[in-house]
Amino acid sequence: MSQIIGLFPTPVMRVEGVFGAEEAGALAAEVVDATSMTNAYSDLLSHTPVTGADANALFSRLGARVLPSVAEFGEALFGEALTWRIKEIWVNVLEPGGHQAIHTHANSFISGVVYLTPAHPSANIVFHKAIGGNGFIFGNTNPNARINAFNGGKWAMPQTNAGDLVMFPSYLLHEVPTNRGGRRISVAFNAIPDRLDNFGYAIRFS
Description:
Layout: E1 13-15, H1 21-31, E2 37-38, E3 45-47, H2 57-78, E4 84-94, E5 100-103, E6 110-115, E7 126-128, E8 154-156, E9 165-169, E10 173-176, E11 184-193, E12 195-198, E13 201-204
Antiparallel strand pairs: 1-9, 2-3, 3-4, 4-11, 5-10, 6-9, 6-11, 7-8, 7-10, 12-13
C-alpha cells in the first residue's frame, strides 16, 4: 500500500459568515467612500490609510469580531494559545478592471481579509509558492499535467461571500487578479501576538 503525506503544509483559514450578509452590506455602504489613497500599481484600486483597530468605531468593532478567529488560527500556526491584537487595518475598494499586485505583508504574523461584498470569481485572492523556494528548478507545466497541491505554483481561493473572513501567514505571497465583476469591497488587517518564546528566548511585541 502506498501513501502520500502532505509534509509541512501552509495553512489558510476561511471563516464563513463572520458578518451576516445584511450587516456586511451596511458596513460596505459605510466605508465605500472612505478611501483616499490610490494603489501604486492599479488606479482602479483604492485604500484608506493603514491605521490601528482603535482608530474608529467601525475598525474597533470589526477587530473585536475577528479576534477569536485570529487566536484560533494563531494556535494552529504556533501551537499555543496566545493573546493577539490587530496591529493594522484598512479598507480596499477594487473597481471593475482593477487588480492587486503580488506581495506579502511585513512586520506581522497573521494577515486577513473580511469581504464586505461578494468577490467575483476572477478577483478571488490567489496565493503563490515562495519565489526561489525549495521546488525543482525545472518543472512540468504543460496541457497534459494534472496540477495538484504538490506541483502547483499557485492556488486561487474558492468563492467568497459577503461577511466571510480569510486568513493566512503574513509571509505568504498573494495577489488579486483583474476584477471582471462588480465593485469588490473588503477590509484587510495584520495581527501580532503579545509574545513568542523560542526555547526560553522570548520576544514581546508592543
